[in-house]
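Postdoc handover notes: sequence design on the structure in folder B. Input tokens:
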């Protein structure tokens, strides 16, 4: 059953076409000891960072499901699955840090490590493609959000959606509250809060230089950041502004962001896999400047792995 396949069951050599469609999804890994200073991405850009962040690692996920680790995190396997009906567009990590899910535009869900398969939309005729994914704080389920704001809950409570509304701009990203509920954001920066998550503001009433492409939740659940295509960062509630790439001539546009475990820093990722670190986030490497373009659409947060070796095996929910 493709909707619940584990990464290892679909591993194959990547084709050049698949390698050219890269998706970078950052998985933050807490508990690493790092220093501060200046950081560079692969494209030669610089961002200032500070010491003491705690969560200082990430993974980049290709559109074909391949995973690149830039940290001391356990390697869960480079899937490079190929053969998918649509590219991977979103990812979310488990609280243990020993697993993650990936979702394709058609709603196929892949799992690795201790991430349980709880369902997918692969058998549903969607009105619009899936664009975002968020993990339930328990690690036992997840949500998918489509471009029209339709939300699909799998092992997690449904709190609401905009699937029946006429939106000014399409939904582009989603973030889960560590308490209860979730937010998602449209390309104009309009924010929609569900399940008791607080609405702390939006850019829906502003004229932006470039559209919003991603969001990340503050660990307190009382705020969030939005990031625009040009690297501009907008902070709301408990989320504090730590810097942006809005004044940098980027090689490729920004496509996503993720926050550190402390909430005192964040990473921005460009389409070519270039990584920009701010606040207590530390740069650990990137694919910026590579010949294969990267297309990031989702950012996920996870805790440190408890062990250095994790197997990728069949899911109990997976069919033959």
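Designed sequence:
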């Amino acid at each position: 059953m493709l909707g619940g396949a584990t990464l290892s069951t679909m591993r194959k050599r990547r084709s050049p076409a698949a390698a050219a469609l890269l998706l970078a999804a950052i998985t933050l890994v807490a508990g690493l000891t790092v220093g501060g200073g200046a950081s560079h991405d692969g494209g030669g850009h610089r961002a200032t960072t500070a010491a003491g962040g705690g969560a200082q690692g990430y993974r980049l996920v290709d559109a074909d499901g391949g995973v690149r680790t830039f940290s001391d995190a356990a390697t869960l396997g480079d899937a490079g699955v190929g053969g998918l009906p649509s590219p991977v567009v979103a990812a979310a990590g488990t609280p243990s840090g020993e697993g993650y899910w990936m979702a394709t535009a058609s709603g196929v869900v892949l799992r690795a490590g201790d991430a349980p398969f709880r369902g997918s939309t692969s058998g549903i005729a969607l009105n619009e493609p899936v664009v975002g994914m968020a993990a339930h704080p328990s690690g036992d389920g997840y949500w998918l959000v489509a471009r029209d704001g339709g939300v699909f809950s799998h092992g997690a409570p449904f709190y609401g959606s905009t699937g029946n509304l006429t939106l000014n701009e399409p939904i582009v990203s989603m973030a889960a509250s560590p308490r209860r509920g979730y937010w998602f954001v449209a390309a104009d920066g309009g924010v929609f809060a569900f399940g008791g998550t607080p609405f702390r503001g939006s850019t829906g009433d502003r004229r932006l230089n470039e559209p919003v492409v991603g969001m990340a939740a503050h660990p307190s659940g009382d705020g969030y950041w939005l990031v625009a295509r040009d690297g501009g960062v907008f902070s709301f509630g408990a989320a504090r502004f730590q810097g942006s790439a809005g004044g940098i001539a980027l090689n490729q546009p920004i496509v996503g962001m993720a926050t550190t475990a402390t909430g005192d820093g964040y990473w921005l990722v460009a389409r070519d896999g270039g990584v920009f670190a701010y606040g207590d986030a530390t740069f650990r490497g990137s694919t910026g400047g590579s010949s294969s373009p990267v297309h990031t659409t989702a950012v996920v947060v996870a805790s440190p792995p408890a062990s250095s070796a994790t197997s990728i095996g069949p899911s109990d929910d997976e069919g033959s």
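Context for whoever picks this up: The CA atoms of residues 181 and 195 lie 4 Å apart. Don't rerun without checking with the PI first.
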